[in-house]
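Last lecture ended with a question: if I hand you only a sequence, what can you say about the shape of the protein? Today we answer it with a concrete record. The protein is Dimethylmenaquinone methyltransferase. Below, first the input exactly as provided, then the predicted structure, then a couple of comments.
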Amino acid sequence: MNKKFILSVLLLAGSLAVKAQQVGASPEYIKTLTAKWKGERFADGRPKVSDALLARLKNISLEDAWGVLKNKGFVNQFEGDWQIINPDSPMVGRVVTAQYMPARPDLLEVVKAQGAAEGRGQQGGNNSWPIDILVDGDVYVADGFGKIADGTLIGDNLGNSIYAKSHRGVIFYGSVRDVEGLSAIKGFNGWVKGTDPSYLLQSTVTTINNPIRIGRATVLPGDVVLAKKYGTVFIPAYLVEELVLTSEVTALRDQFGHQRLREKKYLAGQIDSKWTEEIKADFLKWVNNYPGKLPMTKKELDDYLKDRNY
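The predicted structure:
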């Protein structure tokens, strides 16, 4: 093969590789990562799961959400052992990801130059870059490689900026400072691995809206996070609607089962195993006379229960 041709191919490949090394992922790349999502998207390419679904998700238990994901083959979506700023306030939202790494001078030069080329602010630290792109309903999720001392990704100033843009909070595999100030921001919440009074040192953001690791979980931009007192679950956008409805039906089944067990109408083994036709009919009658407001429409419930194996 002609040596000049081989050299040209190698140079072209090298040129494409250099162009691909952006701090912020392109909309095209995010669309490729989330190709199974068929609905509306943000300008940056992330799936735009509806506010109505997010509101319903907030009432879903971690166990029910995890169970649906496990049955779909998603076994690496949970992370626990958090310090939570407001433990009794759950949070749901659409994920914006950021990856941090220990700093080194040559890498910092490249990141700063590429950030400037992408129009990112050059004053202050680059830990403000992910915050600059947040919109309402976003949750800022960052891998701070577990650094606590000198690994504080935000304090109360940046916390106020985050809440002003997203009306949500943060999930950091790292730390924060100014916890008193952060806890005073009404509506803000944070799941972090630690707190420290120090400033962020010797860390740099390397990518925004790329896949990241949060402990045991793999997280993609545009995932939806369910964050509660006992952990966080990261849900692929295209599965949110099915997960919410399945979990809502599971919660209804549990409520029915608990009530019937308290009434001593059935034995525990009958409720915990495949239901008989008698129990199925009893459940449908119970649902049709449900005393409160169902979390889903009656049509959604009827369609879901049709041909379901109890």
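Comments.
1. The two ends are 64 Å apart (CA to CA).
2. Confidence is low (pLDDT under 50) at residues 5-18.
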